[in-house]
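As a warm-up, study this chain.
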Amino acid sequence: MQDDFAKLYLENQLCFPLYAASRLTTQIYEPYLQELGITYPQYLVLLVLWQHKSLSVNEIGHYLLLESNTLTPLLKRLEQKALLQRKRSDQDERKVLISLTAQGEALKEAAVLIPDKIISSISEQALSREEILGFQKTLKKLVEVLNPKKQPNQ
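Now compare it with the structure written out below.
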């Protein structure tokens, strides 16, 4: 009878290894991001801006799968650190445009080393670079399947 409930065991859940891997991966990033004076969520915002230069709050939220009420405090903290600037659109005052400051753009030079450091630290733990990149590709597919909103072209 108890085997009928085996699908409810923690080790048989899809959600738990994803949750645990996410938390543990974020922990690997922390020392590198502390050197830059930013948090992991702030790093994600900067990644999007380093790629796209200037975006609206809604566009950033679309890329990061975050609502504006979650994103706005992050953006304010990054603005306080002088890494980005927020400006109302001249065409539509409801739209807030986000762009990097010179200091935010310069931070990219230090951050460019982080992805290789992360892959190296995971590779040292018995996963090859190819396995890591293959897993990343699988996770991207999973996000596409689970996210009902179409992602912007990347």
